[in-house]
Design a protein that fits this description.
The complex is a heterotrimer. Chain A has helices at residues 3-36, 58-64, 67-100, 106-115, 121-134, 141-166, 169-177, 182-193, 195-211, 214-218, 228-234, 243-265. By secondary structure, chain A is mainly α. Chain A has a single domain, classed as MetI-like fold, CATH 1.10.3720.10. Classes of the chains: A mainly alpha, B alpha/beta, C mainly alpha.
Amino acid sequence: MNKKYSLRKRKVLVILALVPGALFAGFPALWMFSNSFKNNSEIFAYPPKFISKSFSFSAYSAIFKDPEKIRYFINSYSIAAAVTILTLLVSIPAAYTFSRFDFKFKGILNGVILSLQAIPPITLMIPYFALIVKLHIYNSYQGLVLTYMVFTLPYAIIMLTGYFNTLPRDLDEAVKIDGGSAMTTLWRVLVPIAVPGIVTVGIYNFMICWNEFLFALTLTKTNEMRTVPVGIQLLMGQHAYKWNEMMAMSALGCLPILILFLFFQRFFVGGLTSGSVKN
Amino acid sequence: MHNRGTGILKSRQIVIMALIATATMVFGYSAPARAASTVTISFSQWWEPELPAGALRSIIDTFEKQNAGIKVKLVSGPYSATKAQTIAGAATGTMSDVVGLDGAWVSDLAKQGALASLDTALTRVKFPTKQLAGKIKVGTTTYMIPVVNYIYPLFTNDDLLKKAGINSAPTNRTQFAAAAKAVSGLGGNVSGWVIPLSQTNPNGIQNDIMSLVWASGGSMLKAGKPNLTGNAEVKSVLTFVKGMWDAGSITKGAFTLAEPDKVTEFTNGRAGMMIDSLSHITQIKTATPDLNFSIHALPKADAYSGKGGIPYASWGIGISKDSKYPVQAAKLLAYLMSTSVNTKLADLGHAFPGNTLSVPTWVSTDPMFKTAFTVYQSGYPANEFTGLPKAEDLMLQFDIPFQKYLSGTLTADQMLAEAQKAWLVNFKK
Amino acid sequence: MAVIAHVMKPRRKIRRTLEPFLYLSPTIALLLILMVLPVGMVIQYSFLDNVIMNEFPKFVGLENYFTVIKDPTFQIAVKNTIYFTAGSVAAHLILGLCFAILLNSQALGKYTRSIFRLIYILPWIFTVAIIAILWRMILDPVGVLNYWLIKLGFIESGVEWLASPKTALITVTVINIWAGYPFYMMSLLAGIQGISKDLFEAATVDGASWRQSFFNITLPQLKPIIISMSVLDIIWTSQQFAMVWMTTGGGPITSTQMVGIYTYQQSFGRYEFSLASTSAVLLLIVSIILSTIYGRIQSRQD
């Protein structure tokens, strides 16, 4: 069997294996897009159709015409971006410390950071709310950014510690021999190699902020400060939903993240560590 | 030699990004500070998104014009989240000055010490209390005033009924069950009666189930305390519903169906009948203009011939106890309850005004609305859950055994006993 | 290699020991103020009676804990949560790993690979409210899924996936699996990328089969990441609230009751903030135990 044939065979097998998963993963998204173009009653037509007679962009234009809704998008993006950047800046040194250093309280700190995640956010809401009000950051960007950082930091630290643990110590040694400090090791050597991991954590952080609903609702009072998930919920009145607008808003929310993902995807290039340590 | 990596982000770029991020955080938009000369009060409610766009705001604008020196900030949110926010706000002293309330929350918020006495507030602004159609009290103090009331009559899809051979809307339970069965018999995705028994917001128990008890003059309480065990009227409703359940006349998926889903089912012509809020008439007509439907009173027990209770839900209003501006808050309340404004609000939402002198004009604009008004006048508003302690939990504690009963795991008596036991716990504290 | 003996000056030594704390200081400061404080308050609430509703709550010791643990609803919630968490985490891991390997395959062209990666990541970018709404729509007894299952002859009439006590728990678990596997997939993908190609080359030279190199190279290399993610996922899934709340609300009957939902109902349905805090603290204890185990595994690896 020549190589080309077996490669092609592998390609077909892989694609065949991927298709059912893709259906599972992608169908709801497809359904959402399809519904965003229908009018409200068509969404529940039976038998269900993908493209209905009433295909229109009216749901989308309703959103674009509403400056309040545009504001939601701006808020969501700004906050998510700020949180992601700040979290990475704080968590990378922290993860490095957990990975490379041995110090007193290490186990405890590690455990505490991890387990703080387990309190259901609902219970945390009232004391947290009181705290935010006392700090005068209620209904502001600062309040949400700091709040989200508290969610994203533990994840980021745990994940990045795991990544740093997979990078061989030889790299550190090499820097030390060259006379570099810990920070040099971290930022000049480990970080560039850990880029796939960092990008994953960054995207995940962004996603957590983007999708967060409970605290966005609680810690904001006025519509100027609200984010997209709250905006979507606002389309649910006590009695009836504006289904197509909700679908449209969600679709609009997804698109930029998809573009971001496509852009950062190229950083998943394998084997950056190959050939990096040779004595 | 070691590889420096591809250096995707140079250190300088990192620093710049960090500065931008911090700047966004620090100087990012915060809610603007208020002007010192005017007083700004906040009014939290879920009404704004439910009324036509801009309607509530313009009503408030008129108030501001009439009251120089007072500005009102509308804090709107979805109904589902408003309750939690109000409680959290009460606990941390950030509740709005004026709060939109649902009758089911009053007792608990009052106990929490979050609400101010409206008797005092109304006296302060000299509001003629005779004009108030209702006052919700806990003990002897009034904490909430219903601004407008939405009744929940019976909606029937007349096309489906006719197709199933039913020529007139059912007035008693036997006819109702027959109609539901006939419509379900049409097959496809059509069913006779749609009820929301979702536990997320269990007001289906109030609007769709208990309402049938009240429609026949029954009561779930005795002297203000739970009276479920051995309650013949409640039991007869239970067996009535179970009969239809077993006959397959009730929409599938009821256990996790919520009120908006119920409306959707009906609007899309998949349900023959539903008990629902009048406020949806406009929505249904806009969504499916060719849907032939009509309004009726709830079916009564076959043997009952007296006046029937009609379930209702109010948009109520209250004042926060910690409000820094109780006088201004009272003024807003009085304004919303004043005859002309109250009429306007009622018209906007197709509700019945909380002011006895207000005559809603919407009842004469459409024959359907006229029927609704007749239905309203032929009965009396009934909602025993208003003002009860932990009212929503009472509904939930009824819903769970009810679902067991419908699934056949419990008998009616067992179900009532279980619900009674759970209810008594709430009445203890 | 020369062995270099360090003789550190005392000042240097202090600096050395303080160094890790310096890098950790922003983390510690932030978490201390915004996390530890409120958590402390929640723990305090669990020892008081009827907090928030009562201006002067009294101390009741462990009474709330007994109340909660003896509550049959809580016990059901715990049982369901265990099932839900175990099922979700296991499936997340397996699916994530399979997909990551497939999506890393060099056999696909770059273009095809990107498209598939995009599709596979879709569940991740939806917000909870939309996930709940979408799936409720799709799983409706007269919805899309039932329509196709009937058409293809698998079932006779629409199944009440979310509304039947028999299927509700499995259904929400599947939805949770759908919503959460991309996290695993992405992290494992990144991890696989990080494995040095030399290892694989050496294995091929030695004549190792694909399966052998998977079990002897890929898995061990990924172990730290797998462990981190699993622990996080267990902790996070066990406190799951929003998605299940919006799809079934804990019903039908009590088949999807979860600890998170129990907590919410205690707070905002029954105004029993003390009991809600108690169940939250119980959850916290479980996760502390888990993370201690995690910490031990981690230090043993070092």
